[in-house]
Amino acid sequence: MRLLNRSAGRLSRHRRGPIAGLLVLVCGLLLTGGLYAAFAPAQADSNTDQQALIKEGRQLFIVSCAFCHGQNGEGVLTQGGSQYGPALTDVGAAAVDFQVSTGRMPMAQPGVQAPRKESVFTKEETAALAAYVGSLGTGPAIPDKELYSTDGMSQDQIDALVVRGGQIFLANCTACHNFEGSGGAMPRGGFAPKIRGVDSKHIYEAMLTGPQSMDTFSDGNIPPEDKKAVIAYLNELNKAPSYSGLTLGSLGPVSEGIIAWIFGLGLLVGFAVWIAAHTTRSSKKKDEAAA
Amino acid sequence: MSDAHDTHSDPHGGELVPAGPIADPGLPEHHWRPTDVDPAKEKRAERQVATLFGLSAVCTVLFLVAYFTLDIGDNWTIVAGFGASTMALGLSLGLALMFIGVGVIHWARKLMADHEIMELRHPARSSDADREVAVQALTDGINESGIGRRPLIRNSLLGAVGLLGLPAVVMLRDLGPLPGDKLYHTIWGKGTKSAPMRIVRDGIWTPILASDLEIGDLVNCQPDALHNPERYGIDPTEVEGVNLQIHKSKASLILLRMQPEDIKPGKDAHGKSRANWDVQGIVAYSKICTHVGCPISLNERTTHHLLCPCHQSTFDLADSGRVVFGPAGRPLPQLPIAVDDEGYLVAQRDFDEPVGPSFWERDYYER
Question: What is the pTM of this model?
Answer without folding.
Answer: 0.73
